[in-house]
Design a protein that fits this description.
- Pfam families: Acetyltransf_1.
- It comes from Listeria cornellensis FSL F6-0969.
- Keywords: Transferase.
- By secondary structure, the chain is of the alpha+beta class.
- The chain has a five-stranded mixed sheet.
- The radius of gyration is 14 Å and the shape is globular.
């Protein structure tokens, strides 16, 4: 059974492993490191999917801005390749959205595949002039 929970300090190594296994470069793992070190990190919105004690998936909602409006951005969402196409990513996204609804952020934007996320109610960020104030290189 897959458990979705808030990421803890002991999950950091497993999160990095998920990110490195899920993407062709370390850019996403470096992005997460940069966000976690910034004032835009919202710890209760960093989620892991676990099979027993093994971290098999990760999602992060962090703070960004539309003008002066504080919103959340969902990125990245990652699932170990052997667990992909089994609903783990969807569980992480749905749990993140549910947790975000308990906060005072006005909306969620996502950085990701434009054909995957509409099923969760997302539209294209470029249509809403969404930018991030966090500076980092990928």
């Amino acid at each position: 059974m897959i458990l979705i929970d808030v990421a803890k300090n002991e999950d950091v190594k497993g999160i990095r492993e998920v990110l490195e296994a899920s993407f062709p470069t370390h850019a996403e793992a470096d992005l997460v490191d940069a966000i976690m070190a910034s004032e835009h990190y919202v710890p209760e919105l960093a989620l892991v999917a676990k099979d027993g004690s093994e971290v098999i998936g990760y999602s992060l909602l962090s703070e960004c801005f539309v003008g002066e409006e504080r919103i959340l951005v969902l990125a990245p969402v990652a699932v170990k390749p052997e667990w992909q196409s089994r609903g783990v990513g969807a569980q992480l996204i749905e749990a993140g959205i549910a947790e975000a609804e308990t906060t005072d952020y006005s909306c969620i934007s996502v950085l990701g595949h434009e054909t995957y996320y509409p099923r969760f109610g997302f539209g294209l960020a470029k249509n809403y002039q969404i930018t991030r104030r966090l500076k980092f290189q990928m």
